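A further point concerns the way the authors explain their paired sequence and structure data. Each protein is reduced to its one-letter sequence and a matching series of backbone shape codes. An entry of this sort, consisting of the sequence and the corresponding backbone structure tokens, reads as follows:
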Amino acid sequence: MLFVAGRSTNREAAPTLLGRARRRLVTARRRYEASWPGEIGRELKGLDFVNSITIFGAAMLWSALPLIILLSSLADTRIDDDLSRHVGLNGRGAHILETLFRGTPAHGVEAIVTGFLFCFGGVVAVASSLQLIYERIFGQEPRGWRNLPRGIVWIVAVLGLLAFDGVTNRSERDAGFAVLDLVGLVTTTLFFWWTLHFLLAGRVVWRRLVRPALTSGVLWFGFGLFSSVYFSPVLISDSHTYGTIGVVFSLLTWFFLIGGVVVVGAVLGAVWQAHAEHT
């Protein structure tokens, strides 16, 4: 009888323990959904995060990289040096990256015109996808083709900022890395602030974009540190394994991560702003 009673008690305790575990799981899930990580996760899911950064990164690869190659063939200086610096490559990685660029460029008119057309279409696609992402994050109605002029102006501004960054970086290297990093962080944050307001066509006021700009700038700065440590060995390894095409694989990963930084930075800032407004 004692054995039977003990076994009966164990059977009764099992559902009780299972019920407690289920209640704790439900409670933990509710707490997660009400927390910042849960809200950020919902926002990223609503944006179809993986597909968004894949499209963004692919568009960057087939537009930005050919544009850099084309400008490098036309310029007196090697623009690929600036690309290596932005990726954060060491000397060996930068030397491997140079294999993508012609040492003696050809300036055929047809090749230049065709290249610019493809690059223009690509960078317009990048700007349009970024505009659409920002509109979804901040709950704005898509403007479609009406966004095109703003996208083109933004592209010109990006190219101008990159050119300015290349010139100032060469002339201010003696200032020290800490100063350059601080200036870069401030400049990047201000540029994200303007980008958010401009690509959203001024439909979100400046003060509501301070936090998204700050989170985007800080994430971009952190990504630069990560890139300087991660991509040199990866690029060298991919080059040895796959040859020149391996360099392209590494750059594609870099562009995908850029898309991730841009999207996550804006989402973090938007959630932060929403919480600030409700407190």
